[in-house]
């Protein structure tokens, strides 16, 4: 008895060390532009005026409660409750919240969402039009009802059990299963080891209704809640509304304290392994669990900056080591991450080559030890400072383009974790001031303090069949001791101070100019080498230029036997450096630069995607020039890539998702030999010289390319374009086009049903209806609308009524190249026992499209969302770059506002029914269903 009492007392003492009434705070003042207050019932509010996007606002409801506060018999109810918030409240019965918002173009999933974590639950209603005061009021009443007025009816609870079951099934991926195993080690002795958020399926299926209501009443209360409104709103008006709407919410005087849970301290190194049949790689991670400071002051901010410096420098060294191809690792990385509200961890991790787990761990530990022992060198610190300051310069120049959701997320962290929230200029001054003041001596002294001898956790994860390669704890500890006692040389680095382009270039003449139909501010130029250039100056962002380029042909002009090498050609080129600079040399040369020009070779086109700020516009053009004139193909990079592929192939055959994807690709192409499949044959076929030849054959001849620039083009920008693009070699007589290889499903119906061994029984369904059709804006929009209508219908029938799937992803699309082709594709996971019934529902909904008029309300909601999305997109550089790209490549005309609105207005129940009939009657179908093996 005395022994038992002693054990109980020890248990109580241990538990008391895990629980604390933490008070998070910051000594750094909140941005004065944020209006904040706390109502008498304890509810906190934050309001910020922001005009990105214009005429829109985001509403966040933040609950400082999550799965960690569940009792054992409530495991999963915090997440369940999040779902129930959309299933009826005092002022919005049934699906009233979603219906009200979607009638105003605010879409469920895209604009309306929520998440539950261990320590918080956050709801958001984003991109709400602010010119409708009734909508603003209704949105605030939604937040009010979430606070304490959910209906939680028996019938809605029971209906949601099926949805949660299917989310549980969908989320049981290999990564999730591995984490479930490693969490038992990382969180040993902590409640976090028992809370994976989605919860215990037995509890989800069987909990009594009062248990959910009790959790709701206990934890959803104003003293743990915040209302955040960010957008193009009148702050005083919103504050008045918040006070009026939320002040009446009562607070129980006997409210349960909100406790925080620690991870127990430990002197011993914790060690754990985890394996899964479908794991595709083996990794080893050493975590140092650290305390998260409760008070966020300038000293904490300074440490956070040094943490970022430390990992940035260390990761660059890891990359150098990997590029030498003398490592036992496929990847090495270091990073800090939060692991609980009270803890963070510093991690070093290695992705091991086959059978080289211990050697990979020695690689990562040795470089980390070298950094700890000798620190950084001055040139590393200088480059890191330059990079970080450049990033903050870019932020401050584009501060007016920071969107509402970004600020709302930051205010969420201010409320939950007291992470400082400053005005952009104050934030810039603080962080850049810290960056400039950090000395090499300070950083190197700090680097010695990060790795502590206590609270260490080593985790190894991989495939079941690789378990025999997992080292034992004793072997890992031995490696750590060996490295700590070995002689190491300090890090050294040679600098390459040559210019990016040594050759003197002069601007080429402009031969001709042209206008772009429908886009009056865009200007076209034909350069002396016949390169076609389109420039659209905008002021949507103060310091952003988006760039794209294309030429026709792509992989369609590559021999079938060389397609594998074509797949890797731009990957090798992008990873090998440019001109006189190898990979790391180019990275160092571009320190502090905001510039990118990344080549691609697609199915029917080749080209570039990139961008820059105004100051580095010339650097972007230099990278583009070198990508044509002086690409590199490093044999070392090829060997690294091939080894990575080989390592992945060892385990990818066990990956059910990859098998499903490959099956779809083959069925959609009617097993065309040109279909790309990542398999042993691919690995045997890839060839460095072929990859180089393909790149040089595709990325050549400026005369066959169109180059598009959109944004805040600097003064003299056109002359720089003439200088670099105008000097790319060209052959005006050579004009290429893509070849249509007729890669499409066989005519009629294709069915591929197969089984796989699975850890969690799950059927995955894919259905694609495809065919040829004339391209027009009307047809393209109608295809999109059909997809959206089906999404709404499946949400109602398959998810809500049947509880059959967590969600059905549907997309209607109309491609132009290589020929106008429509595609209506859907995919979902489900219980194998329900597959037959759900497929009957799928086909019924599809056939109803052509036999019955669609819901007028659903159609109107979709049309409003289209107009709202268009209005938002018109104010972005990316929209205009895509528009000019499609206009030039496929001759898709741009519609002015009135033309677009007129087109939308013509879409009605009759046109959709007629179009659906054409699509369904003329389509071929591909149905792929993957189910678990019997008895598995």
Features:
six-stranded mixed beta sheet; alpha+beta; 30 helices; disordered N terminus
Write the layout of secondary structure elements.
Blueprint: H1 2-18, E1 19-20, E2 25-26, E3 35-38, E4 44-49, E5 56-63, H2 77-84, H3 96-102, E6 112-116, E7 121-129, H4 133-148, H5 154-171, H6 174-186, H7 201-206, H8 209-219, E8 225-231, H9 235-246, E9 260-261, E10 270-276, E11 283-291, E12 295-296, H10 298-323, E13 329-338, E14 343-352, H11 357-374, H12 378-397, H13 404-417, H14 424-437, H15 440-447, E15 456-463, H16 473-485, E16 510-515, E17 523-527, E18 532-537, E19 545-552, H17 563-576, H18 583-589, E20 595-601, E21 605-612, H19 617-629, H20 635-652, H21 656-668, H22 680-685, H23 688-698, E22 706-711, H24 717-724, E23 749-756, E24 763-772, H25 777-801, E25 809-815, E26 821-830, H26 835-851, H27 856-873, H28 877-890, H29 897-905, H30 909-922, E27 924-932
Parallel strand pairs: 2-12, 4-8, 10-15, 18-22, 23-27
Antiparallel strand pairs: 1-9, 3-4, 5-7, 5-8, 6-7, 11-14, 11-15, 13-14, 16-17, 17-18, 19-21, 19-22, 20-21, 24-26, 24-27, 25-26
Helix pairs in contact: 2-8, 4-9, 11-16, 12-14, 17-23, 19-24, 25-26, 25-27, 25-30, 26-30
Number of helical elements: 30
What Rg do the Cα atoms give? 29 Å
Uncertain spans: 1-17
Kindly state the number of beta strands.
27
Strand content bin: 15-25%
Secondary structure: helix percent: 40-55%
Instruction: Quote the distance from N terminus to C terminus.
Output: 46 Å
The SS-based structural class is alpha+beta
- Could you report the average pLDDT, rounded to the nearest whole number? 95
């Amino acid at each position: 008895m005395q022994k038992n009492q002693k054990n109980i007392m020890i248990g109580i003492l241990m538990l008391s060390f895990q629980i604390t009434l933490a008070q998070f705070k910051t000594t750094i003042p909140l941005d004065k532009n944020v209006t904040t207050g706390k109502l008498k019932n304890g509810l906190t509010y934050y309001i910020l005026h922001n005009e990105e996007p214009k005429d829109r606002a985001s509403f966040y409801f933040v609950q400082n409660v999550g799965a960690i506060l569940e009792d054992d018999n409530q495991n999963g109810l915090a997440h369940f409750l999040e779902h129930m918030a959309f299933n009826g409240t005092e002022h919005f019965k049934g699906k009233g919240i979603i219906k009200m918002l979607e009638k105003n173009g605010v879409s469920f999933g895209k604009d309306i969402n929520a998440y539950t974590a261990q320590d918080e639950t956050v709801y958001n209603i984003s991109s709400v039009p602010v010119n409708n005061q009734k909508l603003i009021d209704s949105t605030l009443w939604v937040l009010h009802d979430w606070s304490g007025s959910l209906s939680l009816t028996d019938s809605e609870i029971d209906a949601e059990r099926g949805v949660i079951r299917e989310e549980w099934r969908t989320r049981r991926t290999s990564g999730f299963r591995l984490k479930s195993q490693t969490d038992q080690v990382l969180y040993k002795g902590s409640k976090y080891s028992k809370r994976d958020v989605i919860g215990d399926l037995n509890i989800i299926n069987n909990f009594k209704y009062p248990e959910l209501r009790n959790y709701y009443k206990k934890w959803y209360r104003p003293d743990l809640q915040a209302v955040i409104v960010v957008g193009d709103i009148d702050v005083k008006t919103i504050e008045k509304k918040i006070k009026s709407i939320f002040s009446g919410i009562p607070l129980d005087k006997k409210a349960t304290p909100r406790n925080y849970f620690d991870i127990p301290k430990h002197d011993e190194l914790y060690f754990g392994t985890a394996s899964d049949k479908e794991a595709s790689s083996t990794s080893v991670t050493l975590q140092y669990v650290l305390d998260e400071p409760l008070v966020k002051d300038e000293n904490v901010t300074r440490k956070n900056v040094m943490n970022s410096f430390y990992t940035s420098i260390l990761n660059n060294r890891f990359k150098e080591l990997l590029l030498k191809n003398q490592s036992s690792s496929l990847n090495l990385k270091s990073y800090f991450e939060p692991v609980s509200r009270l803890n963070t961890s510093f991690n070093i991790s290695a992705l091991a080559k086959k059978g080289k787990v211990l050697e990979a761990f020695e690689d990562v530990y040795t470089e980390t030890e070298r950094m700890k022992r000798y620190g950084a060198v001055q040139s590393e610190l200088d480059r890191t400072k330059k990079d970080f300051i450049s990033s903050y310069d870019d932020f401050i120049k584009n501060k007016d383009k920071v969107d509402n959701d970004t600020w709302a997320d930051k205010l969420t962290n201010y409320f939950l974790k007291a992470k400082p929230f400053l005005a952009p200029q104050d934030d810039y001054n603080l962080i850049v001031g810290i960056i400039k003041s950090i000395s090499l001596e300070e950083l190197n002294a700090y680097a010695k303090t990060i790795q502590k001898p206590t609270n260490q956790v080593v985790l190894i994860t991989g495939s079941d069949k690789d378990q025999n390669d997992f080292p034992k704890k004793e072997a890992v500890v031995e490696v750590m001791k060996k490295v700590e006692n070995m002689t190491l040389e300090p890090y050294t680095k040679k600098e390459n101070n040559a210019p990016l382009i040594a050759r003197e270039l002069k601007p080429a003449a402009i031969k001709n100019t042209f206008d772009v139909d429908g886009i009056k501010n865009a200007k076209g130029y034909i350069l002396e080498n016949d390169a076609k250039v389109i420039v659209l100056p905008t002021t949507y962002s103060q310091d952003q230029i988006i760039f794209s380029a294309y030429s026709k042909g792509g992989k369609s002009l590559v021999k079938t036997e060389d397609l594998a090498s074509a797949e890797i050609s731009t990957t090798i080129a992008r990873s090998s450096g440019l001109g006189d600079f190898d990979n790391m040399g180019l990275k160092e040369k571009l320190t502090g630069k905001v510039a990118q020009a990344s080549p691609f070779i697609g199915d029917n086109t080749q080209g570039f995607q990139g961008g820059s700020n105004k100051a580095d516009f010339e650097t972007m053009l230099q990278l583009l020039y070198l990508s044509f004139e002086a690409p590199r193909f490093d044999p070392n990079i090829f060997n690294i890539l091939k080894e990575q592929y080989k390592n992945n192939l060892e385990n990818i055959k066990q990956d059910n998702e990859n098998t499903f994807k490959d099956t779809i690709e083959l069925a959609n192409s009617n097993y065309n030999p040109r279909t790309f499949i990542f398999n042993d044959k691919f690995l045997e076929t890839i060839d460095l010289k072929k990859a180089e030849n393909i790149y040089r054959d595709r990325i050549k001849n400026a005369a066959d390319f169109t180059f598009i620039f959109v944004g805040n083009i600097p003064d003299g920008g056109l002359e720089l374009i003439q200088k670099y693009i105008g000097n790319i070699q060209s052959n005006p007589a050579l004009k290429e086009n893509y070849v249509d290889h007729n890669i499409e499903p066989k005519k009629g119906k294709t069915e591929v049903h197969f089984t796989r061994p699975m850890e969690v029984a799950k059927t995955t369904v894919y259905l694609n209806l495809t065919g040829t059709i004339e391209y027009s804006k009307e047809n393209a929009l109608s295809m999109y609308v059909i997809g959206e209508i089906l999404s709404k219908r499946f949400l109602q029938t398959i998810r809500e009524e049947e509880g059959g799937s967590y969600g059905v992803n549907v997309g209607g699309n109309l491609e132009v190249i290589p020929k106008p082709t429509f595609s209506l594709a859907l995919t979902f996971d489900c219980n194998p026992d329900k597959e037959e019934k759900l497929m009957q529902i799928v086909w019924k909904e599809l056939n109803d499209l052509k036999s019955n008029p669609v819901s007028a309300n659903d159609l109107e909601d979709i049309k409003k969302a289209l107009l709202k999305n268009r209005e938002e997109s018109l104010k972005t550089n990316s929209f205009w770059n895509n528009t000019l790209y499609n206009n030039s490549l496929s001759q898709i005309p741009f519609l002015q506002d009135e033309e677009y609105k007129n087109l939308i207005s013509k879409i009605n129940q009759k046109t959709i029914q007629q179009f659906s009939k054409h699509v369904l009657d003329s389509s071929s179908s591909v149905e792929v269903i993957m189910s678990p093996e019997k008895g598995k």
